[in-house]
Structure formats: C-alpha cells, structure tokens
DNA sequence: CTGAAAGCGCTAACAT
DNA sequence: ATGTTAGCGCTTTCAG
C-alpha cells in the first residue's frame, strides 16, 4: 500500500492536518515543522492520493481532452501544447479520441464528466444535437480548440479558417487562375465549412462565380487528395490550380500530379493548410497556411483555467492569427512593401 | 453538483447500497428493483463518481501512458491502439509526454503513481538509473511498448528491430552494395541500439566489415535525415545506399537526394523503418519495415490487464512480427518462391 | 435479495 | 502555528 498522511503524522508526532498543510505548501507553518515533515515524507516515499484529495476539495486537477483524428499530426501538436501548459499549471490530461464519430464524442463527454474533470478541451463535430446538448449541460467549463460547435460559438478559439483560404484563393485568382480545384474536408466539422466559404468568397469578391464541379467533397485524408486528383485527371476536368483542405490532402495531391507527369508549380499550382512539419519536405515544398498548433493548445488551456478559476467569466470567441507561407508549390510570391 | 447514489436512493426508497449494486451490475437483485433504479438513474442523469469509487475499491480503472515523442506519428498510432483497447476493457488513459527526456519520464512515473493508476504503459529511455529505479519500485504492473529498459527486458513487447534492419541491409549487400550509409536514432533508446546492431550483424554475416564513417549518429528526426545527407554529399563520401533509423529520417533523406539531383532508386537506394501511412506517398514511395503500431498498443494493454488481474503472473519479453515492404525507393524485390 | 455501518485518504471549517 | 471534527461518494463487510 502507499504511504498516507497518517503514517507521516504517526512518525513525526504532528496531526494529519498539519502534515497535509505542509505538503500542500500552506504558509502558516513553522519552518522547523515544515522541514521535518517534508524530510519524513521524502524518506517514506510519500505520493499524494489525488483521488482522496479531489473528493474532498471538489477538484481533480485533471483536464479532459477530446481529440478528433489521431491520423493527422496536426492534433498531436495541439495536444502537446495542451499537455505542456496543463502540466505547468498542475493539471493532468485524460485523453479520448473520437475519430470524428458523434457517438464517440458523446461517450467521451460523459466519461470525462464521470471522472470529475475540472474542465474539458474538445475538438468537436460541428452540428450534432446529441453532443451539443451534452456540452450545454456540462457542469464544468469547456473550450473548443480550433473548431466551432453550432450555437456554442463563443466557446471557441479559432484560427481564421475562412480568411486564410480566401487569401490563398484570391492570390491564385490574381495570378491568372480561373479554374481552381478545391478539395474539401468532412462536412461534419466547422473548418471544412469555413474554408470552403473562404474559397467561394474569394471568387465572389473577384466578381466571378465558382464552378461547383470544381468543389470536391472528401474526408480530408491523404488518400482523398490522391484519389480525387487521379479521378479528376481521368475525367479530363479543366483546372490549373488546386487548393486543399489541409496539408495531408495536399501530400496526396502532389503524389498524383507527379505520377501523372504534371509539373508543380509550372503546370499546376498547389496549396495546403496547417503547415505540418513534414510539409517543407514534400516535393516540391508545400505552400500552405501556418496555423499555430502548439499555441492553440496552449491558449485553450489558459482560457480554460481562467474559466475554472472564475466561473462567472463570460465566454467569447477568439481568433489566433495565421499567415500564408509561400514555398515551391506555387509560382510567385507577394511583394512585401 | 452531480447526482449521487443517495439521491437515487431517496427517490426510489431503496438503500444506497442496493442502488450501488444495481448500477454496478451486481447479479443478486430482483429484475423489478433493477429496472426501476436504472430508470431513475437515467432520468436524473446520474454519472458515477470514479474518484469516490476508486478510493474505496482501490482501483481507478485508469492506465497511465508515458509517450516519447509527439512529433512522430508512429506514437500516435500506438496510442490509438492503447486507447481503443483500454476503452474496450473499461479503462481510461492518463497521457504524459516525455519528449525523450529522463527528467520528464521520472516526473511522469511519479505523477501517475500519485494518480493511483492501475498500471502503466511506457515508451521509455533505455539506460537511465533514475527511471529504472522508479520502474522497479512501482507498486503497479507496467509494460514497455516497443522499447526495452536495461535490466527490465522482460517487461517489453518488442518488434524485432535487430532482425528487420539486418534483413534490409543483407538484402542490399546481396544486391551489390558494399558501402551503405546508416543514419541512427538517438542513443538513449533501445531501438537505435538494436537497429544499429542489425546493420553491423548483416555486414559481419556477409563476411564484411562495416565502415564506421558510414554510421552517422543523429536524433532520428526528419531534419536529421536531410542534414546528414547534405553533409555527406558535400564531403563527397562514398556510398550507394542509405538505410534510415525510421521513415521520418528517410523523408528528409529523399528530399536532400532530390535536391542534389541523385535519382532514387537508380543511383541511390533508400530504406526506412516504421511504415508510417505517409511513407507510401513519398517520392518515390518508400521501402520500409512494417511495424504493427496499432497492434503494439493493443497487445501492451492486453498484457497489462493480464498482470493487473493476476499480480503473480511472471513477465516475459514478447516480440511482434514485422515484415519488409518493398516499394519504389529500392530497385529489386525478393522473388517469393 | 436488501440494509446498516464503517471507512477509504484527504481537506474544509472551526477551534485554540 | 497546530489540533479536532466532520464528511466528500462510494464500496466492503457483515447482518438479516
């Protein structure tokens, strides 16, 4: 069995309470007592029992994390930001993966609630009645990292999905492209909706109408990029540039173009989104949107802790800044004045 | 506040105890009582308080997971296997990242112990006195997934690192290569040691001596592959094939070779290890070693649960099978007879 | 099949 | 600066 406070109390002659105070770092304790107790605790190899502590104090110092898609390195980096920051503030991480399935997300929310987590950081689906209801009834604070839930937008920290896709498409339109293929992500998540919206907006602002046959709906995985381009080329579809939902899709796209002897960027320009670390090693290096992944995780935790400490604090949608990174998969780059 | 057993007891007229039994699925309860209690529990939205339960029952149904390097998608897939399997058996996952630092691993072990986890799955460093001591004194079962700790080898589930690197190097030697560059991983982990050993063994069995100047020690990241090949080419080092510690390194290697106008596999053959999902999208598609990542996570959990249920069970090193996958980054492939 | 009582290890609240 | 008391929500043990 593990060493308990009462054993240390016995050993030192002080009361359990005093021992507890010392080990929690309470100030009003004499130096002598404090050092003695700490010494004995260390000698016996005391490790605090969080379960007992949390039962009494009503906080577990555990943050629940609901992640979406483990096959995308994007989320690994977000979670690293979450974990580092949480640790810094004395919180630990209970992790659940949903693989973008509503039922998994429901189960995760309930489980985390049962575990009495102090707060939840989630990468949620956009418009599911079941999960929305669970979030709304959650007795603890929650933050959505990088995504929105319909009706609960103020709980989100986002990264200007619409604007960045709009920018890259606008850039391509300005560079003479008229027929830009857009490969979407899953319709179930807000990023897909927002980014697609950016694509459409860019066309409209340029006074043009996007061709719906150039908008291809996919799940946003690497093989979707590969398969989509293969198919479109076989159909002899007419397009001169490809904007991808994310970098993974772009990687599949580049592969297909290479195999079909279409040179990038000379005959086809390609852009992704996310700026994964592998993207600068693709051939050619990928032009993409830098999304602050680690920082997103970090800010989500900071915001969450703020709400844990002050339950009155109103929720407010926030946006992190992104920026376009021009590499070799596009021809020109903007002149910075 | 959350709904408690006592509220359900009040509502139904039964004792707390009976309610507890029903909700835990105890058999010896009348159908009628059972259904009634379950109904009320559902109506009130009861969620069990794991902290309270675990305090009394001395098990938390939490598994601690100590992961190593979040920048490598390899681990994401292992952890997915862990999480899925754990969930299936009613366990949840407390995740900690070490980023391959001994002090982080120490802190993680202690923290998980404090959280009273029922067992630990770790991706550890190989030879650290501090962590080894902590593992040895752990009051709960633990399994090392895909790696060894010196002196605690029997706690590991491995994947024949030595043999698979030996195989690929042997294959290259048989195909006329004499000077094969080997780019290692970090010396602090057992995989690097074992795989390097496989490289040396292959040479010896072929009656040759490996040239030490062709063994380059790195941290096993993508930029190490890129930087190493750039450097070796600048030094005009003499080699005709490259075997990489892992697929990430190989990706960097391919990039450097491309930029230096060395065609793969015609003038330089390249092999990786891990078979990440992105590896078949590299240019050219990467020849590599399939390591059963998801399965590794799964088996680690199964083995761990076996030890949780039976603390007498002896530990025994296990090995999962791997196999070579020949793709486009090597010229020939073995004839299967 | 069901209930009463005790207690897991800790902390909050009050006392001195 | 330290001690006493009570109790968090649940499960275990013993009783019936």
- The total count of strands of chain A amounts to 12
Q: How far apart are the first and last residues' alpha carbons of chain A, in Å?
A: 68 Å
Number of discrete helical segments of chain A: 12
Largest sheet descriptor of chain A: 6 strands, parallel
Strand content of chain A: 5-15%
Quaternary structure of the protein? homodimer
Can you tell me about this structure?
Two copies of one chain form a homodimer. By secondary structure, chain A is an alpha/beta fold. Helices cover 44% and strands 13% of the residues of chain A. Chain A has twelve helices and twelve strands. The first copy, chain A, has helices spanning 5-12, 16-24, 31-44, 50-57, 73-88, 102-114, 129-136, 161-174, 190-205, 222-234, 247-259, 293-309; strands at 62-67, 92-97, 119-122, 142-145, 156-158, 180-183, 215-216, 241-244, 269-271, 288-290, 318-319, 323-325. In chain A, strands 2-1-3-4-5-11 form a six-stranded parallel β-sheet, sandwiched between helices. In chain A, strand 1 (62-67), helix 5 (73-88) and strand 2 form a beta-alpha-beta unit. In chain A, helix 1 packs across helix 2 (16-24) and helix 1 crosses helix 3 (31-44). The model of chain A has no long low-confidence stretch (mean pLDDT 94). At the A-B interface, helix 4, helix 5, strand 2, helix 6 and helix 11 of A face helix 4, helix 5, strand 2, helix 6 and helix 11 of B. Strand 2 of chain A pairs antiparallel with strand 2 of chain B, so a sheet runs across the interface.
